């Protein structure tokens, strides 16, 4: 079951208003019920006592009933006081009657088979009662509105420390080693405990980031030296006369060393926290990087018996991060090489992006999202990789604000489209 997401301050206001609505509603209904009960009980007792006096004293002694101008007496056995047709069905005891804008109290007593009745005009009292009920309704509505306004004020005050803490936690400077702790700025309450928990978590995060920076720095420095030695040795071996088989192995070693150098540079830049620091990777146009990657991957693709094409559909003069763009293109072309057994691999340049198309077996729709996860490979795995190439492509695109999508081609094959803008 999913719950609608509401801001915390709004939930406080809603809870405060609902509580006032329930409490005020209960008291308002209680007042109305008490007024009706008291009215019925007191008026009933008063009319009963007055009717007893009229029957036992005035009528028995032959006197005219001593009543005020708002009260009238009726009896079934006394023709001068005959009961009107409209009142003959009145029930025994106390009841109320409305005729247009007039309201009456009726008290009926049955004695010795005869019916006696007092009818009191209570229109004035009913008008005052309605004014009382309107006042209760107005007070109820006023209390609800007041509760809503007071809830807004209290919610702002209650939520203010949490909002302040959230802003401080979101601030990037909190990740710096010298960032001050948050807990001392808050009292020893729930918000203070939350700030202390954030301090602990941020401390662990700082340590992890520091370990990652040290690791990437050490790895980059330690690997660059042997890679330079390998690349230099390959250059020297290319200048010597070697058998064809040995030359192919030297070329393979050189390509692998170049790929390792680019991967080290890529991971080093990705490990840096700030995007602006990634500018150290250099810049180049899409066309120049595509030409360089075509010269690099064209020969091994053709050596496998496949056709390789570089197609320019539109030009793009913008500059992009050289290291990241080279890594993305290299991984997509390698992936096409591994998963294509016959046909063609095409690199197509567009305005603000490119496509890598192959005539391989394609990717099932249910696997198109998973293939960008680490260590996930296709059903027909090829090459010696561990399933990190497409994951690295996705990570670079996310870091740079690019988009990568995969779709099928007809009659078979896959298309990886990368939007650089």
Write the layout of secondary structure elements.
Blueprint: H1 8-59, E1 71-75, E2 93-99, E3 102-111, E4 114-121, H2 123-170, H3 190-238, H4 244-270, E5 283-285, H5 286-303, E6 307-312, E7 319-321, H6 322-338, E8 344-350, E9 353-358, H7 389-400, E10 403-408, E11 414-419
Parallel strand pairs: 6-8
Antiparallel strand pairs: 1-4, 2-3, 3-4, 5-7, 8-9, 9-11, 10-11
Helix pairs in contact: 1-2, 3-4, 4-6, 5-6, 6-7
GO cellular component, one term: plasma membrane
EC number: 2.7.13.3
Subcellular location: Membrane
Overview of this protein structure:
With 421 residues, the protein is of the alpha+beta class. Among the domains are: 8-146, Beta-Lactamase, CATH 3.30.450; 280-419, Histidine kinase-like ATPase, C-terminal domain (Heat Shock Protein 90, 2-Layer Sandwich), CATH 3.30.565.10. Helix content is 53%, strand content 16%. It contains seven helices and eleven strands. Strands 6-8-9-11-10 form a five-stranded mixed sheet, covered by helices on one side. A four-stranded antiparallel sheet has the order 1-4-3-2, with helices on one face. It is elongated. 18% of the residues are buried.
């Amino acid at each position: 079951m999913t719950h609608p997401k509401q801001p915390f301050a709004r939930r406080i206001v809603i809870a405060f208003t609902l509580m006032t609505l329930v409490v005020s509603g209960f008291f308002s209904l209680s007042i109305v019920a008490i007024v009706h009960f008291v009215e019925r009980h007191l008026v009933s007792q008063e009319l009963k006592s007055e009717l007893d006096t009229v029957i036992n004293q005035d009528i028995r002694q032959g006197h005219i009933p001593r009543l005020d101008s708002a009260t009238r007496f009726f009896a079934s056995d006394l023709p001068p006081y005959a009961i009107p047709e409209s009142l003959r069905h009145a029930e025994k005891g106390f009841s109320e009657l409305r005729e247009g804008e007039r309201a009456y109290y009726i008290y009926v007593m049955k004695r010795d088979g005869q019916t006696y009745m007092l009818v009191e005009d209570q229109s004035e009292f009913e008008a005052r009662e309605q004014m009382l009920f309107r006042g209760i309704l107005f007070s109820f509505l006023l209390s609800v509105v007041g509760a809503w306004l007071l809830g807004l004020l209290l919610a702002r005050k209650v939520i203010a420390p949490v909002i302040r803490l959230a802003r401080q936690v979101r601030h990037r400077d909190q990740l710096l080693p010298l960032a001050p702790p948050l807990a001392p700025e808050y009292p020893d309450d729930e918000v203070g405990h939350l700030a202390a928990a954030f301090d602990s978590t941020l401390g662990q995060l700082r340590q992890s980031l520091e370990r990652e920076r040290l690791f990437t720095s050490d790895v980059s420095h330690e690997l660059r030296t042997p890679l330079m030695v390998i690349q230099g040795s390959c250059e020297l071996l290319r200048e010597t006369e070697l058998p064809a088989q040995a030359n192919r192995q030297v070329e393979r070693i050189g390509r692998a060393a170049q790929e390792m150098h680019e991967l080290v540079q890529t991971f080093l830049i990705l490990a840096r926290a700030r995007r602006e620091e990634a500018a150290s990777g250099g810049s180049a146009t899409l066309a120049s990087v595509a030409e360089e990657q075509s010269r690099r991957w064209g020969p091994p693709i053709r050596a496998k018996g496949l056709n390789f094409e570089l197609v320019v559909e539109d030009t793009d003069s913008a500059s992009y991060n050289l290291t990241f763009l080279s890594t993305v293109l290299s991984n997509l072309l390698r992936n096409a090489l591994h998963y294509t057994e016959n046909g063609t691999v095409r690199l197509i340049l567009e305005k603000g992006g490119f496509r890598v198309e192959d005539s391989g077996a394609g990717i099932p729709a249910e696997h198109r999202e998973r293939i960008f996860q680490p260590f996930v490979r296709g059903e027909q795995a090829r090459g010696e990789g561990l399933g990190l190439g497409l994951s690295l492509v996705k990570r670079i695109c996310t870091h740079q604000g690019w988009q990568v999508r995969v779709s099928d081609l007809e009659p078979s094959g896959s298309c990886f489209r990368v939007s650089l803008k």
